[in-house]
Design brief:
Strands 1-2-3 form a three-stranded antiparallel β-sheet. Strands 4-5 form a two-stranded antiparallel ribbon. By secondary structure, the protein is mainly alpha-helical. It contains eight helices and five strands; from the N terminus they run H-H-E-E-E-H-H-H-H-H-E-H-E. It has one domain (3-192). A hairpin with a 5-residue loop joins strand 1 and strand 2 (55-57). 48% of the residues lie in helices and 7% in strands. InterPro entries: Lysozyme-like_dom_sf. This is TrbN protein of DNA transfer system. Keywords: Plasmid. Residues 156-190 are annotated as: Disordered.
């Protein structure tokens, strides 16, 4: 368990830990996965009915229309509705596909997670950028991160040195802090890196 989420409510712990582990597993900027998870705001077992008759399911709010496409792989709505990291893994895999294969800037591609329709994408994109900037600062304070856009970028050095905080402090610490810059165009996605002591 990550020490800085130990005192958080279980649902919040799961969201943070699963988002980070899925981002590392699928090589997607962790702050983008965290931002999508926060934006979707789903819960295990949750089914939200949409006006078009579909449902958004589970922690990462997968639409049942999209899930019909995944049935051929044995992926069901119950799989993504369940507690645990599976829905976060599937979301990171899907984000990876959007980031690698879609057209547009990184934010438009990431917002395709929600919708490719320009008007819906633009709304989601704007909020996603704000949330991702806050999560980037939160991650940078706790992990060695790497600017994924800048070739040859040096890893960052975490600034948080404290042991597990109290419950009140942990709740506050787990909330993304305001970004250092309000210019979202200046923000760069962060990849978590792991290096051994021998490197």
């Amino acid at each position: 368990m990550l020490p800085f989420v130990a005192d958080l409510p279980p649902l919040e712990q799961e969201r943070i830990v699963c988002s980070i582990s899925s981002a590392v597993k699928y090589e997607v900027p962790a702050n983008i996965v965290l931002a999508v998870a926060e934006k979707e705001g789903g819960k295990p077992g949750q089914w939200v009915r949409n006006t078009n008759g579909t449902h958004d399911v589970g922690p990462m709010q997968f639409n049942t229309a999209y899930l019909r496409e995944l049935e051929r792989y044995g992926i069901t709505a119950n799989d993504v509705a369940a507690a645990g990291c599976y829905s976060f893994d599937l979301a990171a895999w899907r984000l990876r596909m959007h980031l690698r294969n879609d057209k547009g800037d990184i934010w438009t591609r990431a917002a395709n997670y929600h919708s490719r329709t320009p008007q819906f994408n633009a709304i989601y994109r704007a909020d996603l950028m704000k949330k991702a900037a806050k999560w980037a600062d939160w991650l940078e304070a706790r992990f060695v991160t790497l600017d994924v856009i800048k070739e040859g970028a040096a890893p960052s050095t975490p600034t948080m040195q404290a042991p597990a905080p109290t419950a009140a402090a942990a709740t506050q610490a787990a909330q993304p802090t305001p970004p250092r810059s309000t210019r979202t165009g200046a923000y760069v996605p962060r990849q978590i890196t792991f290096t051994s002591a021998n490197e």
